[in-house]
Design a protein that fits this description.
By secondary structure, the protein is of the alpha/beta class. The chain has helices spanning 32-44, 57-62, 106-135, 160-170, 182-191, 205-217, 238-243, 256-282, 298-315, 334-349, 375-390, 420-428; strands at residues 4-6, 24-28, 48-52, 68-71, 84-88, 98-100, 151-155, 175-179, 196-200, 226-230, 248-251, 319-327, 357-360, 365-371, 406-412, 437-439. The protein has a five-stranded parallel beta sheet with strand order 3-2-4-5-6. Helix 1 (32-44) links the parallel strand 2 (24-28) and strand 3 (48-52).
Length: 440
């Protein structure tokens, strides 16, 4: 049986901050009503968004932490340093971090926002974990520099746009490889890492959509940008394309400079993500790990959790902790129970993102610290881990009677006054009055 407990999840807003707030977005347009309409679409997609005119940006920023601004109108970036800026249209904002062509689909805007914000969380966490690992006395090997020039895979029927794309990307030292069938495409994708995939929608858009969907279902390819090459600026299947996980639509008749800029924006994000993940992997020094489970040991886990709590308070983001307690039936036998816990630990590491902290705390206790993650999202992680544990059988002392581990989970979202030790204790302790809300 799986038991879930959590503290009250206080959802923040422009009118009141607090732990557990959604990513906060300001949407700007010349007409405030248009801005509010676009903000409503983002709210429906899980963001805490509010629309305004260009003159009202400063007032909204002053009211609380802002994660990003989406602008459909020209704005001045002065005073907005450090805030992610996504512009829709050709002349909306100088120095925008992300530029999308108008009209931009709401799902595309949401996906690019979520990806860019999570990339920032990934990079921040990588920097903090590297610092904490070094201060703990571990020798952290420097991360190998990515080779110069991005790598792009073109998938689909050959067309003149392929040659122009290859020429455009050669100008920045990027390599473009062609796979004229899906079979060759997936062979390439499984053999090496690409920084972006360009999918030709002609003559068969369904084929391009299918490849895009398959990439989003694959954990290794999930963050690889997928750009659909279309005929004309208006693509009849845009709704389906973005629902399937397309990153952008690119007109096959676009000029070399536009092709280069649009593809490079996406490959740049992908390469940053690969570097940050390599930094996090480099922190997995044996000196910091639990020898039996290959998860982080309790001492480093608590030290790093101190830093994660400080980061969450400074940025106004949530940080959730999932406590996991496991037990086995007595007849399983101690050696087999230890082997099952080791197997569970190996599975646990692959159930979370690179920036999440997975720690073994004692013989039968584990916890996950999830940066910029609210309690309701953390409960989904706990449910996924529980589902895997409940359907996994382990060998017992009697080879004819395999057993399952019993898993109890607790999700907490520490408030600003909790120490790391208190948060760990609350996540792993039995139910107590300190836990305000119980979730079945």
């Amino acid at each position: 049986m799986t038991l879930n407990f959590d503290r009250h999840n206080a959802r923040g807003s422009f009118g009141g901050g607090g732990m557990g707030r959604s990513f906060t977005i300001i949407v700007v347009d010349v007409a405030p009503a248009d801005a509010e309409g676009a903000a409503a679409e983002l709210r429906a997609l899980g963001f805490n968004a509010e629309g305004c005119g260009p003159a009202d940006i400063a007032g909204l920023v002053a009211r609380g932490p802002v994660d990003a601004i989406v602008t459909y109108a020209p704005i001045n970036r002065d005073g907005l340093e450090g805030v992610l800026l996504l512009s829709v249209g050709d002349d909306c904002a100088e120095g925008a971090d992300i530029r999308l062509r108008a009209p931009a689909h709401a799902i595309q805007v949401a996906a690019r926002l979520r990806s860019a914000i999570r990339l920032g969380v990934l990079e921040d966490t990588a920097a903090v974990r590297t610092r904490d690992a070094a201060q703990s006395g571990a020798a952290i090997a420097p991360v190998a520099r990515l080779k110069d020039g991005a790598s792009v895979l073109f998938v689909g029927a050959p067309c003149p746009a392929f040659m122009r794309l290859q020429h455009a990307m050669a100008g920045v030292g990027a390599e473009v490889i062609a796979a004229f069938s899906t079979f060759n495409a997936f062979d390439y994708l499984h053999e090496r890492a690409f920084d972006a995939v360009v999918l030709n929608t002609e003559p068969d858009p369904d084929l391009a959509h299918t490849v895009c969907s398959a990439m989003r279902r694959n954990t290794r390819l999930y963050h690889t940008p997928a750009v659909l090459l279309t005929r004309g600026d208006a693509y009849a299947h845009a709704d389906e394309a973005f629902a399937r996980g397309a990153s952008d639509l690119l007109n096959a008749s676009a000029g070399s400079e536009e092709m280069r800029q649009r593809i490079c924006a996406l490959t740049g994000e992908r390469r940053r993500r690969r570097t940050a993940k390599a930094m996090l992997e480099a922190c997995r020094n044996p000196a910091l790990l639990d020898e039996d489970s290959d998860l982080f040991a309790g001492a480093f886990g608590e030290r790093h959790l101190v830093s994660l709590l400080e980061e969450s308070r400074a940025r106004g983001h949530a940080l959730s902790i999932v406590g996991l307690r496991l037990s086995a039936p007595r007849e399983a036998g101690a050696p087999h129970t230890r082997a099952a816990l080791k197997q569970f630990a190996g599975m646990l590491r692959h159930c979370v993102r690179a920036e999440d902290l997975a720690v073994r705390e004692g013989p039968d206790g584990f916890y996950l610290a999830l940066p910029s993650t609210r309690a309701d999202e953390a409960r989904m992680v706990a449910a996924r881990v529980s589902a895997i544990a409940e359907c996994t059988a382990y060998e017992s002392a009697d080879p004819h009677r395999p057993f399952r581990l019993s898993l109890a989970t607790r999700v907490i979202e520490p408030d600003g006054n909790w120490t790391a030790a208190e948060a760990i204790s609350a996540a792993l302790a039995p139910a107590s009055p300190r836990i305000v809300a119980a979730v079945g």
